[in-house]
């Protein structure tokens, strides 16, 4: 990429210094947005008080829908179980991703050398996403007892030393919620006070478990994932990837570059390179992918949604495998050796967190393997949405013995044997599992 090297050399060192997966940088306000939403096909199923509707959705959109979009309407408009939850969760994740994109745009346009500024922006963005998602879920689903399993301890923010942070989070949350109509959600009547923000964040205190329902949330710069878990089973999964390039050849670049590249290389179809949200409902046999909406656009459900399907490649020689970016999180030497032994000759795709699941669900990669050091317990928030999306898109996800991942044991996946393997199809999956079995005893894992 020599053409871009001078711009990259100016921006990349900054990203490398500060652009780790958890860095959000300064949040700047979202641009003015328009109001109203398009939901009449489904509004009977929704809590109409907070989700606006236009009655002429059918006339405006149905006649123009492409076949895939029609199918999407069929899937989400039927009064099926969890349609409402899926619909609301997609909006919540869209909003969270737009906040994340905004922060990243600020990073690119106004790089800061102050790591303290950066980490405080990360913290603000993280809490703000929790608040926004909690508020949307409880308001749109009319559920005052929303329960969310997230990674941080909710009490940190109520600490008396955190009052400045709380004020900043509340400001960010209010700026973001003021744009809720852009996503088809009514904004709060008046800005939320700090105690209300604390109250909505306090719902992020679920411990998970085998019965009842709770949401699992994970957010960072590269992925925002939200899943609904009912009686230990994942029933809805939504995965937003604000940097997903939607062009396979760009995936192999460090993800922070994508947004720079998408600005440098004009696309005839902008939606092809600026992030996506993928979602699925248990048992539907389908997953859906749609672009993120951008400044001054309205979220039109199911806007440009297309069915997401895993790749049809079932030959390891042609397959691409994903693995963790950080060597500390999964043994690269073991996966390299394994890849060599099974004839996986393509370069591994190292993308952060759940972007790996997204790559498989969209057919951009075929295999994901993660072999954590012994003693590390995987968190369910880091997998739930990705697992259901891959399964509904036609793929297979298990531990290395071929057992399903168990989301009923609290905040962590207990009893995972050796590691996690996700594949586009059962043939690939069997081959990988057999190969791991054959090489495990000689490994140092
Ligand atoms: N010591 C460890 N061993 C294995 N996985 C780890 C780990 N520490 C963190 N992780 C997991 O690996 C994820 C990051 O992987 P990757 O390198 O592919 O981005 C982390 O996501 P979070 O940062 O959301 O907790 C976490 O789920
Ligand atoms: Mg995580």
TrEMBL record:
<keyword id="KW-0479">Metal-binding</keyword>
<feature type="binding site">
    <location>
        <position position="382"/>
    </location>
    <ligand>
        <name>Mg(2+)</name>
    </ligand>
</feature>
<dbReference type="InterPro" id="IPR000760">
    <property type="entry name" value="Inositol_monophosphatase-like"/>
</dbReference>
<keyword id="KW-0460">Magnesium</keyword>
<dbReference type="InterPro" id="IPR006239">
    <property type="entry name" value="DPNP"/>
</dbReference>
<dbReference type="Pfam" id="PF00459">
    <property type="entry name" value="Inositol_P"/>
</dbReference>
<dbReference type="GO" id="GO:0000103">
    <property type="term" value="P:sulfate assimilation"/>
</dbReference>
<dbReference type="GO" id="GO:0046872">
    <property type="term" value="F:metal ion binding"/>
</dbReference>
<keyword id="KW-0378">Hydrolase</keyword>
<comment type="similarity">
    <text>Belongs to the inositol monophosphatase superfamily.</text>
</comment>
<protein>
    <recommendedName>
        <fullName>3'(2'),5'-bisphosphate nucleotidase</fullName>
        <ecNumber>3.1.3.7</ecNumber>
    </recommendedName>
</protein>
<dbReference type="InterPro" id="IPR051090">
    <property type="entry name" value="Inositol_monoP_superfamily"/>
</dbReference>
<dbReference type="GO" id="GO:0008441">
    <property type="term" value="F:3'(2'),5'-bisphosphate nucleotidase activity"/>
</dbReference>
<feature type="binding site">
    <location>
        <position position="151"/>
    </location>
    <ligand>
        <name>Mg(2+)</name>
    </ligand>
</feature>
